[in-house]
């Protein structure tokens, strides 16, 4: 007999609601409540308690969160892949561990000071209060760990609205982190959520007067929703990162890096390489090296077959009464998002060994594989005549997201020109895309990259308000 997880969660929520109705209170199950009102109220109480603790104590709580996340990195990775049906366990373990270790804590908060004849003026970074954090299905535990650490480091409590398809993984992460905080002597319910996440619950959370700030990590719809909410909002939205390879690059290394980046967690990260734009003179060599690095090349009718599997065609007339041919539009078949290359290839009758990590194919510049954010290890390669054409095309296919771009080149002028033209939040030179969030590159990690609202790679300081404190004619000691 199979047990329906959704049914179990519904029954649990119902039982919790009834117990509450009888007792008149809800202590929450590790931060998980039946209703948004309860989740917000509990987070507000917890935030008041956090405010009364020292920064040193706050850092102790964060240390406990880091340890708990590391200890449970494997469990959460396995849960996420099983529940969402997306990604690779080994890569998700690494993402959980890095989120736990490399997300900045309270050291990220900086005080500015001016001193002089008229005394001392300080600007300090204070908490917002309770933050509503909407999280994606693609990085469910990683985003809760990363945002949880950064938001608490800044002195806030958090009400999470996880994606329903990664509900259990997200709620389990919240419970694990809350348990660690309480064990370390911190308040209960610094992180909360409802037992049954849904679009309705997210909308109720966004409108709730007890929520001071919203942070959306996801696609264009949710970023638009928080930006239209009337509240202070951080929007971390979609990308479609192009990677350019010019004739001066170390082609063998570029091929290896691109396959590693585009197949990491089966291309789920928003920063992952989504299309290759290669200068014609080196394109064949690049493709040959990509094949040696774990990519499987398909061509001709296999590309058409793959299109029919991973994309859904919507035929729409360009305008009513128009005699032109219908404009073709595509949406992604979500069934294949984050799936292994081997599985995707098996759907078009191609059997490959487990060592194959990505599917590559040569396409035209306007092919839907280039234009759509596929989020699966299927990587189109477009040949162009020179670097000028490459830059022009890359800017076009990035769609103005200004998210992430990658370039393999030894020519500083070309690198600079591309970086200036594309204006992305992250620009990676001669490395896999994940170096841009500190994986094999310098710098801290984040899973909330806020291009649309401009905070960039978010950390504790992104979740603060600046507050000025002025003391006149004293405390300047020179
Ligand atoms: P998604 O947009 O479907 O869902 C993200 C979250 O928003 C979920 O919790 C979902 O329930 C909620 N949501 C979706 N539409 C909503 C609406 N209209 N109103 C309120 N809430 C809504 O995205 P996903 O499939 O979970 O994640 C993949 C997408 O997120 C990709 O586009 C990827 O590029 C992007 N992403 C961006 C970042 C970043 O840091 N910029 C990080 C991870 C993912």
In short:
With 478 residues, the chain is α/β, with parallel strands linked by helices. It folds into two domains: 25-237 and 458-469, 3-Layer(aba) Sandwich (Aldehyde Dehydrogenase, Chain A, domain 1); 242-316 and 323-441, 3-Layer(aba) Sandwich (Aldehyde Dehydrogenase, Chain A, domain 2).
How would you describe the overall organization of this protein?
It is a single chain. With 478 residues, this protein is an alpha/beta fold. The chain folds into two domains: 25-237 and 458-469, 3-Layer(aba) Sandwich (Aldehyde Dehydrogenase, Chain A, domain 1); 242-316 and 323-441, Aldehyde Dehydrogenase, Chain A, domain 2 (3-Layer(aba) Sandwich). It is built from 16 helices and 20 strands. The strands form five sheets. Strands 11-14-15-10-9-16-17 form a seven-stranded parallel beta sheet, sandwiched between helices. Strands 1-6-5-4-7-8 form a six-stranded parallel beta sheet, sandwiched between helices. It has a three-stranded antiparallel beta sheet with strand order 2-3-20, with no helix packed on it. Helix 4 packs across helix 5 (89-102), helix 4 packs antiparallel against helix 7 and helix 5 (89-102) packs parallel to helix 6. 50% of the residues are buried. The chain binds nicotinamide-adenine-dinucleotide. The site of nicotinamide-adenine-dinucleotide has 26 residues, from helix 8 and helix 9. Nicotinamide-adenine-dinucleotide (NAD) binds next to helix 8 and helix 9.
Task: Give the cofactors and ligands.
Answer: nicotinamide-adenine-dinucleotide
Mean pLDDT metric: 93
Query: Per the principal axes of the C-alpha atoms, what is the gross shape?
Result: globular
The number of domains is 2
Output the number of helix runs: 16
Q: Name the structural class.
A: alpha/beta
Backbone CA Rg: 24 Å
Q: Can you give the helix content as a percent range?
A: 40-55%
| Terminal residue distance | 78 Å
Annotated CATH homologous superfamily of the largest domain: Aldehyde Dehydrogenase, Chain A, domain 1
């Amino acid at each position: 007999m199979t047990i329906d997880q959704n049914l179990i969660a519904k029954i649990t929520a119902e039982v919790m609601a009834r117990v509450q109705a009888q007792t008149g209170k809800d202590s929450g199950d590790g931060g998980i409540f039946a209703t948004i009102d309860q989740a917000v109220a509990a987070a507000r109480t917890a935030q008041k308690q956090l405010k009364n603790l020292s920064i040193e104590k706050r850092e102790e709580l964060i240390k406990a969160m880091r340890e708990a996340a590391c200890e449970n990195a494997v469990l959460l990775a396995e849960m996420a892949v099983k529940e969402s049906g997306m990604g690779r366990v080994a890569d998700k373990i690494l993402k959980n561990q890095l989120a736990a270790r490399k997300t900045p804590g309270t050291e990220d908060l900086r005080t500015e000071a001016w001193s002089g004849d008229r005394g001392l003026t300080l600007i300090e970074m204070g908490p917002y209060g309770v933050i509503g954090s909407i999280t994606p299905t693609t990085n469910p535990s990683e985003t809760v760990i990363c945002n949880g650490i950064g938001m608490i480091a800044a002195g806030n409590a958090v009400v999470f609205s996880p994606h329903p398809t990664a509900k259990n993984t997200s709620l389990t992460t919240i419970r694990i982190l809350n348990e660690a905080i309480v064990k370390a002597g911190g308040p209960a319910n610094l992180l909360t959520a409802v037992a049954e996440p849904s679009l309705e619950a997210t909308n109720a959370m966004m409108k709730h007067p007890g929520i001071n700030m919203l942070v959306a990590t996801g696609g264009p719809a949710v970023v638009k929703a928080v930006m239209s909410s009337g509240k202070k909002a951080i929007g971390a939205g979609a990308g479609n990162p192009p990677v350019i390879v010019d004739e001066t690059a170390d082609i063998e290394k570029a091929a290896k890096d691109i396959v590693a980046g585009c197949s990491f967690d089966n291309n789920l990260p928003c920063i992952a390489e989504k299309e290759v734009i290669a200068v014609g003179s080196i394109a064949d060599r690049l493709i040959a090296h990509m094949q040696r690095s774990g990519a499987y090349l398909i061509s001709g009718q296999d590309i058409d077959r793959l299109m029919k599997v991973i994309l859904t065609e919507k035929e729409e007339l360009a305008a009513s009464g128009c005699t032109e041919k219908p404009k073709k539009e595509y949406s992604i078949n979500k069934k294949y998002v984050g799936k292994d290359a081997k599985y995707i290839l098996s759907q078009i009758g191609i059997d490959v060994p487990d060592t194959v990590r990505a599917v590559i194919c040569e396409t035209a510049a306007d092919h839907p594989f280039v234009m759509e954010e596929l989020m699966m290890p299927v990587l189109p390669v477009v040949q162009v005549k020179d670097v000028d054409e490459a830059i022009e095309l890359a800017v076009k296919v990035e769609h103005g997201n200004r998210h992430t771009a990658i370039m393999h080149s030894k020519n500083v002028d070309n690198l600079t020109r591309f970086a200036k033209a594309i204006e992305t939040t992250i620009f990676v030179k001669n490395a896999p895309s994940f170096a841009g969030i500190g994986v094999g590159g310098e710098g801290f990690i984040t899973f909330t990259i806020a291009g649309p609202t401009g905070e960039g790679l978010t950390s504790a300081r992104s979740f603060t308000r600046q507050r000025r404190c002025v003391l006149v004619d004293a405390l300047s000691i020179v």
